[in-house]
Structure formats: structure tokens, C-alpha cells
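Appendix C: a fully annotated inverse folding record. The material below is reproduced so that readers can follow the format used throughout the book. The structure is listed first as C-alpha cells, followed by the designed sequence.
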């Protein structure tokens, strides 16, 4: 048994599970019927159903604790998953060079020879472990994604050029990482350059609370040259070390859920979305709701444009089959059946439209007051 989910709540509240799921959507919580809910969500939902329902849920609070205990015992369903890493830093400090170098030197074996990256995320195998890299989505996109509640990065690699030092976008990146509460690994890049001064960079970064271990802090610093492939494996070692400390886990047994990395409209294929699977396993054919869109996973490709049938946690995939183009940072959830997925998707689209209308009419009112 999982923790308390929409189905359990449905029984307590004498409603249908579909209604509970729908209601949760209205409250901005995107789950499928089997996904366990946290205490806050359950309380909000109870409040939404009014006192009568609230009492019924309260009766069950004791049981709730039991459910949460059960979930603790359920850790056996949770298995380690690869870390998801975002590379950030000031323009021209070497992010793309680093990502390319990592990708080309640690391609998953069976892909060797055929690497044309199709999507903005990829996985590498290093020391028999997988690491997922997200192509730096640009800081603005990153903060917008976070604003929409997407927390897709486990670790931020901050690239700082040793000949240039801390620059405005370096500080921005630090702030983003701090806001997202992801640990930062500093990659001091371009150490091959004549004007490189890694110690100066380190000194500058201490002002932002990034202090290396040999200076008494706890931030991992690696001096690299992305261009000349120096210490890149050491950086990967440090990423795996950091990931190990974080004990990243997910349950591959449940239906898939995760976030949109990017999405676009393709002339021939229709809406195309790059998704990061964060929980569960996704399969071709799955009914799915993605943000305010819905559909069925028609095709699923890996980052090399190859067709795959299933995707486990931390895997980036590109899918088609949606009725519309979702937004980066949107959450997605796989549903049991297409009918519920459609109902949920349509409900969400309707709500988004209403919100938009309310927002624009509000602006109009404001304007009206301004002119009075
Ligand atoms: P991005 O804007 O952060 O993605 O930076 P790029 O990866 O595009 O790199 C900007 C420039 O710096 C390019 O001309 C790279 O060849 C160069 N570059 C990147 N890494 C290194 C390095 O380790 N050493 C040297 N000398 N140049 C580098
Ligand atoms: Mg770049």
C-alpha cells in the first residue's frame, strides 16, 4: 500500500476518485489517482469540501499517520536514480564547450558513432553510473520554470572562467541555485589560459558563500579546462560524489510524472515536448496530461532521436501526441485512462483561460482607475 492517495480520499469523502483528482487540479495540484498526497494537500482539499468533509478527514488523521508510516516502510520501492545537473554561468565562460566535451567523451556505449543531439538534455554513462545533463536553458527560462514550481535540477555546476572571474550572470546563477536550493559545484574553467587566476576566482566566490573545503568551507571546486579536456573526469567524479551524498531516489514502479524541459510546434509532427521523467516509468501509449494539454504518448525518442518504449526516472525524452504545446516548467502526469486525462486536461485549459481573462480584465480595471 502506498501513502494516502486520491482513491483513498475518495472513499473517505464518498466521492469518485476522478472528482478528487479534478478538484486537486482546481487547487493547482497535479496528481493521478494512485499518487500519494502530502498532509498539506489533504488538509487543503478537506477545507475545500467544507466542515462536514473536514470532520470525516479528521477522523482519519490517525490513519493518515499510519499511511505516512507505511510510506516510510515503503522505501524499498524507492531506488537510486541518476542526478540531474544544470550547467550555469556567465556568457562565454565555457558552458557549451563543457557540455559538448562531456557528451562526446562519455556517450552511452551503444550510441557511439551516431550522436546527433536532438533535444536539450542528455545522459552520459560515467564509471557505470548515469548522469543527466540539462542544456543550460538560459537564466531567465530557468527562473521562469522555477516560478511555475518546476524543480528539475539536483545539482548546479557553476562555470566561472579563470581569466574573467565573477561576472553579473555568475551572481545571477548563484542566486538561482540558492533559490532552488540545489548544491553548487564550482568549475573554474579556462585554467589553460595565460591570464588565468583560479585563486582570485575562488576568493571572489567566497563573498557569495562559496568556500572550498581547503579554505574551511564545504563547496566543491574543480579547476578545469573544458577546451583541453583537463580535469573533466574529476568534475564528473565530484558530481557523482555530491549525488551520492544526496541519496537521490525515485519509485520507478508508479505511473510517470515529471516536468517539461522545452516544447515546440513541429510542422510535421505537431506539438513536440522534451520531458524529464522524475517519478515512475513512462511508456509509449500512456495517457498523459502535460500542463494544460493532454493526449497519449504517440512516439517517444531519447536524446539521440532514437525510438524508445519506456523511460525511467531522470531520463529525458522527447514525445509527440499532445493536443497543444505545453510550456517549459509545466508538470506532467500519466493517467490511468485517456478519458480522465482528457477531462483533466480540458479542465486545466479552461481554468487557465479563465485566469487569463480575469488577469486581463483586472489590468483593464487598473487602467481605468489610473485614468480617473
Ligand atoms: P558559453 O557562452 O558559456 O556557452 O561559452 P562557450 O562554451 O561558447 O565558450 C566561449 C569561448 O570560450 C569559446 O571560444 C570556447 O572555445 C572558449 N573556451 C571554453 N572553454 C575554454 C577553456 O577551457 N580554455 C580556453 N582557452 N577557452 C575555452
Ligand atoms: Mg553557450
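Designed amino acids, in order:
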Amino acid at each position: 500500500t502506498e501513502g494516502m492517495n486520491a482513491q483513498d480520499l475518495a472513499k473517505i469523502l464518498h466521492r469518485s476518485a476522478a472528482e478528487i483528482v479534478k478538484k486537486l487540479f482546481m487547487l493547482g495540484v497535479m496528481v493521478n489517482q494512485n499518487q500519494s498526497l502530502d498532509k498539506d494537500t489533504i488538509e487543503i482539499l478537506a477545507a475545500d469540501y467544507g466542515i462536514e468533509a473536514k470532520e470525516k478527514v479528521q477522523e482519519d488523521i490517525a490513519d493518515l499517520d499510519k499511511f505516512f508510516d507505511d510510506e516510510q516502510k515503503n522505501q524499498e520501492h524507492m531506488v537510486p536514480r541518476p542526478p540531474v545537473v544544470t550547467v550555469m554561468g556567465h556568457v562565454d565562460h565555457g558552458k557549451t564547450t563543457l557540455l559538448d566535451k562531456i557528451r562526446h567523451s562519455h556517450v552511452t556505449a551503444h550510441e557511439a558513432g551516431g550522436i546527433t543531439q536532438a533535444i536539450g538534455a542528455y545522459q552520459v554513462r560515467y564509471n557505470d553510473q548515469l548522469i543527466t545533463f540539462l542544456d543550460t536553458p538560459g537564466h531567465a527560462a530557468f527562473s521562469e520554470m522555477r516560478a511555475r514550481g518546476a524543480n528539475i535540477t539536483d545539482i548546479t555546476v557553476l562555470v566561472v572562467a579563470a581569466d574573467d572571474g565573477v561576472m553579473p550572470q555568475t551572481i545571477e546563477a548563484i542566486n538561482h541555485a540558492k533559490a532552488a536550493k540545489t548544491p553548487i559545484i564550482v568549475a573554474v574553467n579556462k585554467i589553460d589560459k595565460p591570464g588565468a587566476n583560479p585563486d582570485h576566482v575562488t576568493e571572489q566566490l567566497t563573498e557569495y558563500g562559496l568556500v572550498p573545503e581547503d579554505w574551511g568551507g564545504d563547496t566543491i571546486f574543480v579547476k578545469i579546462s573544458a577546451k583541453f579536456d583537463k580535469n573533466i573526469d574529476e568534475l564528473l567524479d565530484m558530481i557523482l560524489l555530491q549525488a551520492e551524498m544526496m541519496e537521490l531516489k525515485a519509485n520507478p514502479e508508479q505511473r510517470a510524472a515529471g516536468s517539461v524541459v522545452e516544447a515546440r510546434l513541429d510542422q510535421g509532427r505537431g506539438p513536440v515536448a522534451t520531458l524529464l521523467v522524475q517519478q515512475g516509468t513512462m511508456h509509449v501509449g500512456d495517457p498523459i496530461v502535460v500542463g494544460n494539454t493532454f493526449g497519449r504518448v504517440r512516439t517517444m525518442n531519447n536524446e539521440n532521436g532514437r525510438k524508445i518504449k519506456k523511460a525511467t526516472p531522470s531520463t529525458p525524452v522527447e514525445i509527440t501526441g499532445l493536443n497543444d504545446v505545453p510550456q517549459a516548467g509545466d508538470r506532467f502526469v500519466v493517467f490511468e485512462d485517456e478519458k480522465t486525462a482528457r477531462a483533466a486536461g480540458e479542465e486545466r485549459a479552461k481554468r487557465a483561460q479563465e485566469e487569463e481573462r480575469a488577469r486581463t480584465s483586472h489590468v483593464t480595471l487598473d487602467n481605468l482607475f489610473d485614468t480617473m
